[in-house]
């Protein structure tokens, strides 16, 4: 049995559990790098090729790392045309691996963590970005109540509740205060659009690095990492995805400052137009939605820094990401102050 790198549980406990479900077989286990949240592993057990997701060890913020919600949304969306990995099982006890966990099928495809898409041709890059927009539109077209997710969150007043949630997480953090981030937290509730009643399943972390693409086509075959999903507003995901055009390559792999035309990457305006051409009718993206997304991502990095300090972060380099909270807060402040246009041409 192959030993995983930096496993936070006893592999023998997992093997015994899988034997009780699938019969005796050989198991291999490999920890997947790149994530900053829930520890994730490739698990091969006999003919079963799976991915395991679990909560991190150690203290965590209330409501964070909800792997049960991840599994529930995968089960619901597996019956739709939204591309997701097939769910296998969920175990809610902590006696086996130290925390609850779930298993899903492992898909063969490509994941791109660098939004400049090195190694691809300009036409391939353009296709990847438009494939991302189309996958998001498919997700937002699903009516939660029709797939058993009517109670997956509270409909209406999504941004008001989200601002409250992330501001509380910020104020509960033990990290040093970031003045720009505090200022953005104060700006958001004063500039929130009137709720238009639009409801969809919001992924919560919809970006290139959380998508699995077909090996040869610019087609999303799996939307990953549903930890932050809930019933929400589609413009939350669209604003979050748009951060790519407003963050630099050293700011979690953005494309700000790169020659998009030479690379073949669509402008933000082209990306938004492609999304709206495939989406159900939705209000236009506004400055608020992008500022909100930058704020939320900054608070996520504050949480990562907290867990790194406690030794419970999923990624070995989590501590190095802590400065990104201030960087994303500064990007949000630039958009608020008008230092940069919030909607690229």
Low-confidence stretches are: none
Average pLDDT reading: 90
Helix content range? 25-40%
Q: Span from first to last CA?
A: 53 Å
Summed up, what is this model?
The protein has 10 helices and 9 strands. The protein has 345 residues and is an alpha+beta fold.
Kindly describe this structure:
The protein is α+β, with helices and mostly antiparallel strands and about 350 residues long. It has ten helices and nine strands. The protein has helices at about 10-20, 65-75, 120-140, 160-170, 180-185, 235-240, 260-265, 270-280, 285-310, 325-335, and strands at about 25-30, 40-45, 50-55, 85-90, 100-105, 200, 210-215, 220-225, 230. A five-stranded antiparallel beta sheet has the order 1-2-3-5-4, with helices on both faces. A two-stranded antiparallel ribbon has the order 6-9. A hairpin with a 2-residue loop joins strand 2 and strand 3. Helix 5 (about 180-185) packs across helix 10. The longest helix is centred in the last third of the chain and has 24 residues, at about 285-310. The chain is globular, with a radius of gyration of 20 Å. The model has no long low-confidence stretch (mean pLDDT about 90).
Q: Could you list some keywords that capture this structure?
A:
single chain, 345 residues, alpha+beta, 5-stranded antiparallel beta sheet, two-stranded antiparallel sheet, 9 strands
